[in-house]
Amino acid sequence: RRLFFDTHALVCLLEENGFTTQQSEVIVSALVKIMNTNLDMIYKDMVTKVQQEIALQQVMSHIGGVKKDMIILEKSEFSALRSENEKIKLELQQIKKQVMDEITKVRADNKLNLNLEKTRVKELHAQQDRALTQTDRKIDTEVADLKTMLETHKLDNIKYLAGSVFTCLTVALGFYRLW
C-alpha cells in the first residue's frame, strides 16, 4: 500500500519542532496505522468493477433468456407471458432501487468515516499546536527569568565594583594623609 505523504519528512518536521526522534517516529507510525485501518474499512465495503460487471452480465443473460422464452411462448400464452414480463420488470426495478440505496448507504458511510478521520486529524493538529504554544510560552518565561537574573547579577557586580573602588580610594587617601 502506498502512502501519499513523506513519512520521513514528517518525522524530520516533528523533530525540528521539539519532538525526539522516538516520539516523532511513534506519531508517524500511529498516523500510518490509522490511515491503513481506515482504508481497510473503506475497501471492505466497496464493490469492485469486476463484481459489478459480473452482476450486470448475469442480469443481461437473464433478460436474454426471458426474451427467448417470449418468442417461443408468444403464440400460445402471450397474455400470461406479458403479465410475467411486467412482474420481472417490477422486480428488476426493485432490485435496481435496492442496489442504488445500498450504493448511497456505502457512500454515506465512507463520507462519514472520512469526515471522522479528518476531525481526528484536526484535533491531533490542534493538540500539537497547543503543546507547541505551551512549550514556546515556557521557553519565553525561562528566557525572561534568565534575563532578570542576569540584570540582577549585573547590578550586584556594579555595587561590588563601586564598593571596591571606594575602598581602594579610601585606603589610598589614608596612605596619602599619612605621608
TrEMBL record:
Keywords for the protein's UniProt record, in alphabetical order: Coiled coil, Membrane, Mitochondrion, Transmembrane, Transmembrane helix
Pfam families (UniProt xref): CCDC90-like
Location of the protein in the cell: Mitochondrion membrane
GO process annotations (BP): calcium import into the mitochondrion; positive regulation of mitochondrial calcium ion concentration
A GO term from the CC aspect: mitochondrial inner membrane
Main location: mitochondrion
Source species, domain of life: Eukaryota
Similarity comment: family membership: Belongs to the CCDC90 family.
PANTHER family: MITOCHONDRIAL CALCIUM UNIPORTER REGULATOR 1, PROTEIN FMP32, MITOCHONDRIAL
Designated name of the protein: Mitochondrial calcium uniporter regulator 1
Originating species: Nestor notabilis
